[in-house]
Structure formats: structure tokens, C-alpha cells
Amino acid sequence: MIVLARSVVCTEALAPLESRVSWEQTRELFRYQRGSAFDEAAEFVFASPFCPRHADFLAYARPSFAPGRGVLEAAQDLMRRIHADFVYESHSTEINTPALEALARRKGVCQDFAHIMIACLRSMGLAARYVSGYLLTHPAPGTVKLQGSDASHAWCAVCVPDFPQGERWCDLDPTNNRCGWHSPGEDYVTLATGRDFADVSPIRGVIYGGGSHTLTVGVTVEPVAQDAAVQANFQSQSQSQSQSQ
What we know:
CATH architecture: Roll
Oligomer: single chain
Strand content: 5-15%
Number of strands: 7
Distance between the termini: 43 Å
Largest sheet: 5 strands, antiparallel
Number of domains: 1
Shape: globular
Strand order of the largest sheet: 6-5-4-3-7
Radius of gyration: 19 Å
Helix content: 25-40%
């Protein structure tokens, strides 16, 4: 069985947003209060299968969350620490490797880093979600990009309440130390968001019968010549969305 998907997408670089709300103020917004309006971001405060609650996540997160520190500044500091403290090592973990184990080993892949950061943010009472997508990779000088050699990428997002309405999520990629609202940059393609990887697995299924099987995954993200009509339509839609907000 072969599953093949091809897409052409338009991305853009967005100006960074600033936040002045503290992480404690943000935490209080997601605490249950009788009679208060429901905030859908509160669904991302709770533990999930790949991002459980544990004292070790809280202990690792705390140095970034000084009293009164801005929520965005604290989240960015946590991202930078994970990027500096952890070693990216392909095949060092499996899809079912617990985030707590990756935290103890201080190494893993992008999925591990995203799960660890989400667990740390939630341990501080903040709303954090998992983001799955693709990343445009650049070959080293003098080398040729290997077709299909890439894999999907993962990062996370934290809810920042004083961002403009509709722009409340700031994406943070601890693997590459990149952040931005909507995405960490124009070289990122977002596919899905959820509580953790379990919510955004691209394909699920069961094979009945005997024998064995192997799975091969290939992702290629390449820049293409920009079509003027496509770009004009994309800009028009972006302007319409901005005006409606």
C-alpha cells in the first residue's frame, strides 16, 4: 500500500507580537471559576497520554518562570534551555518513548522535545498544544538534497492571552530555537494541532492477517517558482481575514 500526498502551499513571514501579561496572570485565566466563560484554550492545560504530569517536568520548568515574568518571555527562555540542554539524536527514541525518559536522558528527536516542553508548560498551569508539520530544510554547502529523506517535524505552541483576538497562540520550536505566532517562520508548514502526537498521527489503521510488514516514510519540502495568481489569491485571503478580525 502506498499513500502519496502532494500539496502546494504559500507561507509568509509574520512580524513578531509582544506580550506584557505575566505567566501567573495567564495561569489564573485557565483555572476553573464558577460562572466564568468557557475558554477553549483551557482544554490544553490538562495532562494527555504523551504529556503526563510529573514533578520532574515542574522542576525543569521552574528556573524559567521567575515571579512576575512575562508568559511569552518565560516560554521563550524554556525553549532556549531545552535547545541548549538536549542533544538531537535520530533514532535515539521511539514513537512510544515516554517524555519523562527523554527528559532524564537529555536527548531525543523533535517529537520528544515538543512533548517535554508541553509537559513543562502545563506543569506551570499554562495552555500548551502540540503542532505537527513540515520544515523546509537546507542542504549543507556542496551537497545535494536527498529526495524523500526528511520526516515530519514537531513543535509546540503556548496560549498568550493578550495577543490580538484570533492570534492567541505563539509557536515555539525547541529543536531549532525558533518562535513566532502562527508558525516559527515562513519555512514551516503547519498540518495539525492537538494535545500531543496521539491527536495528530497522520495515518491510523490495522492490518489483518499473518506475515510481517515494514513502514517507510519520506517527506520532501522544496521551494517552487511562485505563481503570480496563487500569490495574489493568498494575499487577498489574508487581507480579508485580517479585516474580519
